Amino acid sequence: MTPAKPQRTVFFVSDHTGITAELLGKTLLTQFPDIELHKRTLPFVDTVEKAKTALTEINDTAQKEGQRPIVFSTLVNEEVRASMTSDNALFIDLLADFIRRLEAELGLESSHALGLSHGMGDELAYQKRMDALNYTLSHDDGMDTANYDRAKVILVGVSRTGKTPTCLYLAMQYGICAANYPLTPDDFTAHALPKPLLPHRAKLYGLTIQAERLAKIRRERKPESRYASLENCQSEIRAAAALLRQAHIPVLDTTTMSVEEIAISILHGTGLIKRLKS
Question: Which of this chain's residues are annotated to bind ADP (predicted)?
């Protein structure tokens, strides 16, 4: 029997949405795969009162679990940040040290303004991301295949390999119109790419995953079903791999990858990263 992994609670505390704290914190935590993490996000902690409430939750968790939670913080306001200190948790401030070093190097004080990294900034860039997000939502899971001409990339693979969250991430973070198409047993019987994909072969990018991981994910959605059985997952993955190999479609194994890592790999693999920089 595989020994149970040690467990730890992780808090992401932010004076805004918490996206930055989550992104940076989760990136660091990927280096520790042998621990099971319970993640909680505490957004909009922008007053001393809210900070004290958040600290109470953190302290209560430490007392209940008998060990210190890990806290990733992106709080900008010094007074609010000071209200979050406690010996009952490991606090990792993801901004303060960098801001102090930048102030010293630039000879300037930072604005200490809340939420600037999440502002609308360039209106055209913001609108591009919103347009891409609307496109991706309406082209999820094989919907509206007639409008694939606008897609910059079309992710293909069996159900639950990470296609949808990756497309959404590409749209929100990079303004990329991304669609995805699920491969089903009917496609494997035909031994050919589905017809809607044929005119867009150059945009296709395959996602695969180890069968054991896929079965676990599917069991959370449909327990005790053939859809989630290990045997069926193995069969679908083999058939999808053969189909994509025959069509010369690049394939990425997402088994141990975060959505962020999948997205960056696709940007580099497709060459889209160069177009974003140009």
Answer: 157-164
